[in-house]
């Protein structure tokens, strides 16, 4: 038995949804369970990688045998991810990061006052964009290999390719989260993987762990191709 394909490699995976506090008892989040990110982390671990898993709010047990960093907000996830990106060989951004957070986080539980209230939101930092921008100015700009996700409900290919180019990823995994058996909270997923040259592979409905194995197959091939050049 030879060495495992990812032995000696450092992998960073993000999973789950971020939590954006309104006040001590209320928050904004999304339906991400963390299952897709967990499956990617487990598959990398079993291929011999040293895995760091940055988790937001998740359901169920996080995998064993990986280094877990718990965060709540998008800004905390940004700090945790950006601190370790320079040491990584692969980064996979399966987390569902809130694009906006409440402008003010109230120190005390908000009281019921008027009939209607307005919650003002401000943009969160885009972590995947920050990784792409950072990597573009590094001398070894091929490292880490970056896989982004794109959760879409319409014009999936168009939006996924736009995200791939804008956020400067090596691969983007497009998820039509409106399809049954795909996306948030499900045991299975259905995805299309795109690279800079367009569609790489359509992965039909299968367990998230099996999707994760296909993604690692694709990433390993592409990383070796990059190394050979
Ligand atoms: O966790 P599960 O229940 O298993 O569900 C899996 C999933 C549907 C969450 C997953 O497969 C998925 O699609 N994850 C990405 C969700 C998402 O936030 O997509 P997006 O299209 O909004 O973001 C695009 C990419 O940018 C993502 O890699 C995201 O992590 C990243 N991003 C987005 C916003 C932000 N502020 N920072 C980011 O890094």
TrEMBL record:
Annotated metabolic or biological route of this protein: Cofactor biosynthesis; coenzyme A biosynthesis; CoA from (R)-pantothenate: step 2/5; Cofactor biosynthesis; coenzyme A biosynthesis; CoA from (R)-pantothenate: step 3/5
Recorded superkingdom: Bacteria
EC nos: 4.1.1.36, 6.3.2.5
Cofactor section: FMN; Mg(2+)
Catalytic activity line of the entry: N-[(R)-4-phosphopantothenoyl]-L-cysteine + H(+) = (R)-4'-phosphopantetheine + CO2; (R)-4'-phosphopantothenate + L-cysteine + CTP = N-[(R)-4-phosphopantothenoyl]-L-cysteine + CMP + diphosphate + H(+)
Keywords: Decarboxylase, Flavoprotein, FMN, Ligase, Lyase, Magnesium, Metal-binding, Multifunctional enzyme
Domain DNA/pantothenate metabolism flavoprotein C-terminal, first and last residues per copy: 6-218
Keyword Ligase: yes
Record keyword Transmembrane helix present: no
GO molecular function: phosphopantothenate--cysteine ligase activity; phosphopantothenoylcysteine decarboxylase activity
Binding-site list for CTP: 99, 109, 125-128, 149, 163, 167
Cofactor note: Binds 1 FMN per subunit.
Region described as Phosphopantothenate--cysteine ligase: spans on this chain: 11-229
Function summary: Catalyzes two sequential steps in the biosynthesis of coenzyme A. In the first step cysteine is conjugated to 4'-phosphopantothenate to form 4-phosphopantothenoylcysteine. In the second step the latter compound is decarboxylated to form 4'-phosphopantotheine.
Family, per entry: In the C-terminal section; belongs to the PPC synthetase family.
Protein name: Coenzyme A biosynthesis bifunctional protein CoaBC
Interval of the full protein contained in this chain: 183 to 411 of 419
């Amino acid at each position: 038995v030879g060495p495992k394909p990812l032995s000696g490699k450092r992998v960073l995976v993000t999973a789950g949804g971020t939590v954006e506090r309104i006040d001590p008892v209320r928050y904004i989040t999304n339906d991400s369970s963390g299952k897709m990110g967990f499956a990617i982390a487990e598959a990398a671990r079993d291929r011999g990688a040293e895995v760091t898993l940055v988790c937001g709010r998740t359901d169920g047990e996080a995998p064993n045998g990986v280094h877990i960093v718990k965060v709540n907000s998008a800004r905390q996830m940004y700090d945790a991810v950006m601190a370790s990106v320079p040491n990584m060989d692969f980064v996979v951004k399966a987390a569902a990061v809130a694009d906006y957070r409440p402008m003010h986080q109230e120190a005390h539980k908000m009281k019921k006052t008027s009939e209607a209230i307005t919650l003002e939101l401000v943009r969160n930092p885009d972590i995947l964009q920050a990784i792409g921008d950072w990597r573009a100015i590094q001398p070894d700009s091929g490292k880490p290999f970056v896989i982004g996700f794109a959760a879409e409900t319409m014009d999936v290919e168009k939006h996924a390719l736009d995200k791939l180019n804008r956020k400067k990823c090596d691969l983007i995994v497009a998820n039509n989260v409106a399809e049954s058996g795909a996306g948030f909270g499900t045991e299975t997923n259905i995805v299309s993987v795109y690279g800079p040259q367009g569609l790489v592979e359509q992965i039909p409905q299968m367990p998230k762990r099996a999707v994760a194995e296909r993604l690692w197959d694709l990433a390993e091939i592409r990383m070796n191709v990059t190394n050979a050049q």
